[in-house]
Structure formats: C-alpha cells, structure tokens
Amino acid sequence: MAPVARDVRDLLTAEELAAVTTTVQLSNPGTAVELAERIVLEAVKFEAACAASPTLRLTPSRVVDEGWHALILHTRVKANLASRLGYFVHHVPEAPDPGRRDVDALLLTQTAIEGAGYVPDPKLWAGPTDTTIPVAASCQHSPGGPEGSCTGSGEGDGPSGPN
User: Fold this and answer.
1) Over the stretch 85-126, which tens digit does the pLDDT of each residue have?
2) Nearest Cα to 68, choosing from 109, 28, 103, 39?
3) 161 in any annotated domain
4) Which of 66, 50, 61, 72 minimizes the C-alpha distance to 124?
C-alpha cells in the first residue's frame, strides 16, 4: 500500500494562502481563484522539495514559477514557511534563456516533491513552451550559474530551488 501523501495546505494558514493566491490573480488578470490557488500550492510543494533536498538541482515549471514569485513577494509568509520547513529557500533571478534549460529538471523536481511527501499536479509541470495555462512568468530556470542567475544550490551555485 502506497504511503498517504502529506497535505501541502498544512504549510500555510488560510490567510497566507489567500494573500499569495490574490497576488497570482493580480499578476494574471482573469485567472480563476481555483487555478491561482493550485499554482500557489504547487509552488509551496516546490519550496518544500527544495528545503528537503537542498543539494538537488530543482527548478519550477513556468506555471509554478508564477506562484513561487508571488510567494517570494510575501516576505512574512515566505519566512513563516521557511520556519515550518526548517530551511530558507533563496531565489537569485536570471534573464530567461530556453537554450540553457535542463530537459530533465522538471521530472527531477516532481520526483523530489514526491520524496518530500507531496503529489505534484502534472498539469502545472508542463514544459516551457506549453502555454495551455497562460501566466505572466517567463523565467526559464536552468542548470547552475553564478550569482545573479535563477540557479543555485543550498550554497548558491546549483539550480533554482535552493538559492
């Protein structure tokens, strides 16, 4: 029998989730609250996976990145989440460059989410050219780079998650 997945909603209060969801909606006019909330919850799963595996080269999808950036804007929520996870996941932005994209990074990240005890929402992990779910985010995360990139490990030198 497979283990029961953890509920990502346990990592945020209802007020925190609502605040970050509203930010996703403001950045993406016309996005239904249900979809915006799914995007935020997937970003929290991403954050949990990065915290659980800070040396892995994890990266959000284009859609999940929208939720992650909204989360980053809510510094108190992000700090509370880091306290709950026991690890602060940094973000170091870079200019988008699809040519640098690691094609296996999204699969690795979904596997890490599962390893952290959560179930990834596959519709939100489409590749960067899939525009089925339109969002404002354009960041194409890629393998490790210098300070000033969207990439980094727990020490700041690997992919996007644990910068």
Assistant:
1) 999 999 867 666 666 666 688 999 999 999 999 999 999 998
2) 39
3) no
4) 61
Looking from the CA of 148 toward its CB, the CA atoms found within 13 Å total 1
Q: Is 79 part of any domain? A: yes
- The count of domains in the chain is 1
What span, in angstroms and rounded, lies between the C-alpha atoms of 16 and 20?
A: 6
- Name the token pair of 154: 């727990």
User: Domain residues for 67?
Assistant: 11-124
Report d(CA 110, CA 99) in Å as an integer: 21
Prediction pTM value: 0.80
Helix 33-52 with 105-115: angle, nearest 10 deg? 80
DSSP conformation class of 10: G
143 within some domain? no
Measured from the Cβ of residue 55, the count of other Cβ atoms closer than 10 Å reads: 11
